[in-house]
Amino acid sequence: SGIPSDVEGRVAIARKIVERAEALGIPREDIIIDCLCLTIGANNTAGLVTLETIRRVREELGVNQTLGASNISYGLPNREVLNRAFLALAIVNGLTCPTVDVAKVRPAVVSADLVLGRDNYALRYIKAYRAEEVAAAERAKAKE
Questions:
Q1: Tens of pLDDT along 41-75?
Q2: Among the listed residues 35, 88, 85, the one whose alpha carbon sits nearest the alpha carbon of residue 58
Q3: pLDDT at 1
Q4: How far is it, in rounded angstroms, from Cα 51 to Cα 56?
Q5: How far apart (Å, rounded) are the C-alpha atoms in residues 59 and 11?
Q6: What is the DSSP letter of 34?
Q7: Which helix (H) or strand (E) segment is 128 a member of?
Q8: Pairing between strand 32-34 and 64-68?
Q9: Element housing 67 (H / E)
Q10: Which residues in 23-49 are b (16+ Cβ under 10 Å) and which e?
Q11: Are 36 and 6 in contact (CB under 8 A)?
């Protein structure tokens, strides 16, 4: 019947998927749910619904989750900025397996991991920063 527009409907579908998978002997750690992100250009609550669904699926079902994060910005200008912000929020809410262009969103991911206490002593964050500095210098040198 299509993608539910409300959190309850989406969580109910996720629960049904998890229950059926477990009945077939698939352990929860092997289940990945897509909470489905729709563009906020067509529905300004689409992002909130997706984020709340991700949070509820994490808390109630404890499964991994994937998401086509860039769907949030479809049809809007300056998509990369919106995609990065949304991805960071999705990670905070429980997203574990995002479908993204890593080159474009790596700063958002390492930043979110740092803020969430998943990067001891900011080692991955600093490493990513240094790698970007080197890449920027190489790009500047290539332009000369």
A1: 999 999 999 999 999 999 999 999 999 999 999 99
A2: 35
A3: 83
A4: 9
A5: 11
A6: E
A7: helix 123-143
A8: parallel
A9: strand 64-68
A10: eeeeeeeebebebbbbebeeeeebbeb
A11: no
pLDDT value at residue 112: 86
Which residue from 51, 54, 120 is spatially nearest to 86, judged by alpha carbons?
51
Q: How far is CA 93 from the centre of its chain?
A: 9
CA distances 30 to 59, 76, 100, Å, are 17, 34, 20
Residue 109 CA to residue 129 CA, distance in Å, equals 12
The percent of residues in the chain predicted with pLDDT above 90, rounded, is 77
H or E segment and range at residue 68: strand 64-68
pLDDT digits (tens, 9 = 90+) for 12-24: 999 999 999 999 9
Q: CA gyration radius for the chain?
A: 18
What is the edge-to-edge ordering of all strands in the sheet holding 64-68? 32-34, 64-68, 97-99
Q: Write the CB contacts of 14 (distance below 8 Å, at least 6 apart in sequence).
A: 33, 35, 53, 57, 61, 63
pLDDT of residue 104: 81
Residue with tokens 């984020």: 51
